[in-house]
Amino acid sequence: MATQTTASCTGSTLLQPISEIINLPLDQVNFVACQLFALLMAVWFRIYLHPSKTSPFIRHVVATLLGFYLALFCFGWYSLHFLVQSGLSYSVIVFAGLEHMHKYCFIVTLGYLILCQITRVYVFDYGMYSADFTGPMMVITQKITSLAFEIHDGLTKREGQLTPSQKYLAIRRMPSLLEYLSYNCNFMGILAGPTCSYNDYMAFIEGTCYQPRHQENANGKENGKYKQSEPSPKNDVISKLCTCAISLAIYLSLCKLIPVEHSIDDDFVNATPFHLQVIYLYLAMLALRPKYYFVWTLADAINNAAGFGFNGYNKDGSPRWDMISNLRILDIEFATSFKMFLDNWNIQTALWLKRVCYERCPVNPTAATFLLSAMWHGVYPGYYLTFLTGIAMTMAARAVRHNIRPHFLVSDSYKFIYDVITWAWTQVAISYTVVPFVLLAVGPSLKFYRSWYFCLHLLCLLVVLALPVKSRRRQAKEQQDCLQDNQTDHNSTENNCNQKDKAT
Questions:
Q1: b or e along 246-256 (b: 16 or more beta carbons within 10 Å of the residue's beta carbon)?
Q2: 379 near 118, Cβ under 8 Å?
Q3: Catalytic residue selected from 199, 346, 364, 498
Q4: Most exposed residue of 132, 281, 366, 502, measured as fewest CB within 10 angstroms of its CB?
Q5: Residues 6+ apart with CB under 8 A from 272
Q6: Residue range 457-483, pLDDT digits in tens
Q7: Which of 377, 407, 495, 498 is catalytic?
């Protein structure tokens, strides 16, 4: 096994002995080692390169050089793709006209990512599902495209044309090459992200991220009270590292005991009752998720340790370090709707899809968003099966929520029953939907769906046909008409009152 992992790893072989001892692929060992090194560098960066002690230029240079070193250690010469992708996109941003620059940059950046994914999958090693070099390129793609749209909003649109979030994210001047590379390739996020806005990153580099400013949290409300003293991320970092340790232990203990691939085994399918197959699938997916919990929580802890991610204060005065958090584990595991699960899973990617595609697509934004998500994830056919199924699931869940949920809100006991039922349904639906994402290939994925008789696909189709759902634009139009009617009634009432006053 060690020989095979060495052959598939393009990065450093310095940790090969450790890889052989713990019997894990070398590229994964390199990834974890680099992230732990980045965690130490983040603490050093916050203490010794604090904005009060050094200039933004030095912080940019150090963050970028450390990022390039980690990329080279993990991926070897393949890390040059990060520079090529960033260089091509920066050329488009600088030399293309501002009116259409964001579109050209989106096509070039996403196209280069897809080209690399096709090369890796179909030329080099199909099925190598590990720490490949296109993983960091996916995060860089998010950052570059977000940056292009934010520059376009800041330099070509008036304030009235932007939503509140677009006003906050809009960039009012062209970034320099150093700022651009630092934003894309800094050591805190080069390997696992998460994506962040350019303005937030610049505030962190310049030391202004603790100053009061208008900023919306996930609930659309402004931050709590602001304190003048700089908060410490120590408690949050320790808490997140503990979460990482627990997640890693659970994943390593259960991933081989409950493999997803066993759910398409002929003997298992023929000998196991259907309800036990459902339970097994749920447990298999439950054992798979801690891998993502570990990677994303560790990445969040690295950024927090460097002083990045401060998001204001809670009502009790404690600091919040969740500005760029990528998941909320309890909300995922106890989600009572498909949307609630997706809103708390890979949060920064969901925000990127919303800001780049969903809010800007003029035709069927839901389908366009799922399609973009599939293209961004890679070229395995299983990804497209997952996201096509996700469209049906989302539409059915929306129909159920709009038509059935109001009948269960009459009392707390009814609502509790509804929450229990929808929790079970959500967990089964998510597990059913993401099976092709794990199996990757078309044959095994269709074999699984056939063993389930495509039951959830058919159920979603019946729900969508039977229950009416208003489109997003129709709802917005009705809300606008309602506001206009209320305003008209209010004005009419004021006029009547004024006439009575005059008569009196």
A1: ebbebbeebee
A2: yes
A3: 346
A4: 502
A5: 280
A6: 999 999 999 987 765 555 555 555 544
A7: 377
